[in-house]
């Protein structure tokens, strides 16, 4: 019995050991399982990333590049190439198994893509090609260049150089041809150094020869030329072979050329930044390599035009066009043309300022004594100045220029001086005043019509006009009512000095004035009315001055009545009779 129990005890001890052993094995298997499960995710992902499938090999080798499937397989290939590069740094041995096949697929993909992109670039070289079509096709597959850029930099550089070389020639030949064809549409008659503000029409060419321009006022009058800055700013460009019978002013041709350039340049800049993955200074450098020759050609053309140009308005309009097109480019997020715009402004602005100074000098040198036209109406210099300054002031409100504003003020001063010298040619003061009022009035009307009310020029002429108008009114009343006016002035002085006794002594004089006034006042008003309307071609100005004169006359009359003695007052014409008569001269202007 004892021996049996000992055997059981031994058996139970071995069973216990087995249970402990099984427990240890269970724990080990559990750890192995969790390790394998932990490894399963990364390992399957690794295998998926590194294994080259049959679909990938077939897609890269046999599917055409424009097919959507090729784009999908190319993206997978790019991902695997990047993954293998990453694993090589970690010295992963599995990379050696797929490296060769991936390299071969990369070479094949690069070759197919290179052929396709170069084919698109060569399409630009075809005559009359619309290069927006191949550009749009290239943008659709812009990932191709991205793939080449990250895997074969030499091929990427080759494609980039080929594109630059092709597009540079395309743009240069297009703009060279377009500019030369536009040049043939230019007006044959252009202003010369003899067509300045102070030079009289036909003065240089003798009796039979008129100025080279049919009408010199067109040089200083804007007319509809300012439309290039408004509704024509973004109008379709001029097509030379369609409009070969039409002639244009220089700024209209300049607008068409620059608008074509803005359109092409903005599209080109945005294309190169998107397709070639460049920005900042690299984008600017690439843009300059493509359009540099073209821009130099256009600057050279403007420089050649400017050398012989005496058309202030053309230069001024071109400068304003540049300011507006620069702003348009910035709105499209393209600042690549800024240096080109600066070059053009550096050419046009000094020339404009030089011609403005020539015009100012011509007004300064103009001798009124030698002029053939000595009428009291608006002078040709005033008319030219008014039209020209109104044009420049109204069109430069958006982009003012301080130097040009100063030159305009200098021109205004010279015109003021000239008008005073010209007025001095008339013997009578009233003639001088008529001349000055007519000229100031015309300038003011043109300035007020086309510019803001508060310009320095308008304010200056307004002050001059008011001062001369007041003086004119006194002058026009004086021949007819001079005695009455003088009596009022003397009487008021005596009243101020408190010399009423002396005022009473003037009764005899006042009676004679009353008698002469009673007999002639109606006729005098009629003569004043006729004289004013004849003197001023602008009916509004004439009627305004007439009303001003009649108002002054009524004021003098009221004062005259107050100064008279009761005896003299009884012989006077009633003020109501005079007012009824004055109403006859009221106008509807």
TrEMBL record:
InterPro entries: Vps52 (IPR007258), Vps52_C (IPR048361), Vps52_CC (IPR048319). The keyword Protein transport applies. GO terms for molecular function: syntaxin binding. The keyword Protein transport applies. GO terms for cellular component: cytosol; GARP complex. Residues 165-473 form the Vps52 C-terminal domain. Pfam families: Vps52_C, Vps52_CC. Residues 1-148 form the Vps52 coiled-coil domain. It comes from the Eukaryota. It is found in: Golgi apparatus, trans-Golgi network. Keywords: Golgi apparatus, Protein transport, Transport. Belongs to the VPS52 family. This is Vacuolar protein sorting-associated protein 52 homolog. It comes from Danaus plexippus plexippus. The lineage of its organism: Eukaryota, Metazoa, Ecdysozoa, Arthropoda, Hexapoda.
